[in-house]
């Protein structure tokens, strides 16, 4: 249930708890990172609902989008916007929530990339943008910290091949490069869109053992994040 506070809809219920979003390119290691922290007590982890994006009432909008982005980009991104909004608004069951990506990166990275690369018609981009603007103007979507797993596109390309998700076999390196530049301009160079929370950058090209070590080193910084007002 939503109620109104200071002109915005907010989720009813318990006190605001810290929300940490893990951001990064496709196959940068977000799920692996969340899996690691999920073993910590008092933390709730929400991974992206990719299984929903691969099966909505028997349809696979993720596969359709990769097959024909101009036709299906709007369909996929509309559904992603809905499912991610649902995550943001769901009741937080532990003292801290960590979640994979956010409503913000869905728009600022993926929708933007489809449009800028000429694969999304202007009218589809306009409709998604209107939806996004309405949501962030009218609903409180609190994020207290963004953890950015910073990788090279080549690392993601190698990991993507290793993960071997059927729909993603068609992804070329150039696609990951375009997403990388959008992420860097948003979270590092601050030259594109407003960043909704402080950013902690973790270099993420390293092997798994070194990554787990870095997660431990950053644990304190991550979990003592002050709540945004
Ligand atoms: N540091 C790492 N070194 C090598 N492979 C990794 C590392 N982190 C994750 N992987 C592997 O790379 C693939 C993508 O990782 P994943 O966590 O699913 O990425 P994301 O959730 O960001 O898409 C998986 O096969 C995973 O096992
Ligand atoms: N707004 C989004 C979010 C994700 N995707 C795609 C990219 C991947 O193929 C897949 C899952 O991403 P991952 O968690 O592996 O980084 O969903 C998209 O197209 N739009």
UniProtKB/TrEMBL annotation:
Gene3D superfamilies documented for this protein: P-loop containing nucleotide triphosphate hydrolases
Record key words, sorted: ATP-binding, DNA synthesis, Kinase, Mitochondrion, Nucleotide-binding, Transferase, Transit peptide
GO cellular component, as recorded: mitochondrion
Positions that bind ATP: 24-32, 159-163
Class in the EC hierarchy, top level: transferase
Enzyme Commission number(s) from the entry: 2.7.1.21, 2.7.1.74
Catalytic activity: thymidine + ATP = dTMP + ADP + H(+); 2'-deoxycytidine + ATP = dCMP + ADP + H(+); 2'-deoxyuridine + ATP = dUMP + ADP + H(+)
Family annotation (SUPFAM superfamilies): P-loop containing nucleoside triphosphate hydrolases
Keyword rRNA processing: no
Similarity-based family: Belongs to the DCK/DGK family.
Name of the protein in question: Thymidine kinase 2, mitochondrial
Species annotation: Hemibagrus guttatus
Upper taxonomic lineage: Eukaryota, Metazoa, Chordata, Craniata, Vertebrata
